[in-house]
Amino acid sequence: MKSKVILVCKDGESKEAYLRELESVEAEVDVVASFGELLTAMTEKAYQGVLIDLATSIKASREGKEPLQDALEVFPIIQIRWDSDSSSIRTISSGRASAVGSLAEFITVECKPFAPRMIRSHPRRPLNFNVLLYRKESMEGDSLERTVTINASRWGCFLFSAEDRMKGGKVWLTINELEDKTPIVGVIRWSVKWGLTMVMPGIGVGFESITPGQKDELVKGYDL
């Protein structure tokens, strides 16, 4: 059975090259030209992976990319670039796809085993909470990073971070603005590494353990 993926890419030579490669690895692909179209498509149809043309991403506004962060939390995603000089496709892994060398490998290793899903309907809001983020459950000082949320929902948040962190790893955090300072346990669902693209570096964290009181405080007044 073919893997069902969606490609974000404007018309041109790059798009045609990607489609040829995807056809050779027997992937069923839908194409959209913008991140707004991506969000709409993924709320209407289930996919196993997302491919983003780097040139299209760079030219898009930051506001236009914001909906993509929800998709990154759940779906395998990879950034790709067409090199016309060498007639080859270069890949930059991100999100769930953390160590993929080629487009064909991304489809086979990451997308094929992933159950098709639609994007979640609950949005994140651009809220900047001050956060103490720890790598260790002991919450020792040497594992501390002071950071802020870029956006948040009752289910998780995206945290600014320039540190390399592995998807699937746990983090412990306290949110300064919450009265209840019980450590919140989170799981890293996806990450954006510093310096690879013109995108905010950080980690998408799903809340694994959060008290009802913290959740009420977190969402109060924000319609989350």
Question: What does it look like?
Answer:
This protein has helices spanning 13-24, 35-44, 54-59, 62-65, 68-74, 103-111, 212-219; strands spanning 3-8, 27-32, 49-53, 76-83, 88-95, 130-134, 144-153, 156-160, 170-175, 184-192, 202-209. It is of the alpha+beta class and 224 residues long. The chain has 2 domains: 3-111, 3-Layer(aba) Sandwich (Rossmann fold); 130-219, Beta Barrel (Thrombin, subunit H). Strands 6-7-8-11-10-9 form a 6-stranded antiparallel barrel. Strands 2-1-3-4-5 form a 5-stranded mixed sheet. A hairpin with an 8-residue loop joins strand 9 and strand 10. The mean pLDDT is 84.
CATH class of the largest domain: Alpha Beta
Strand order of the largest sheet: 6-7-8-11-10-9
Taking the alpha carbons of the first and last residues, their distance comes to 37 Å
CATH architecture of the largest domain: 3-Layer(aba) Sandwich
Shape label? elongated
Estimate the mean pLDDT confidence.
84
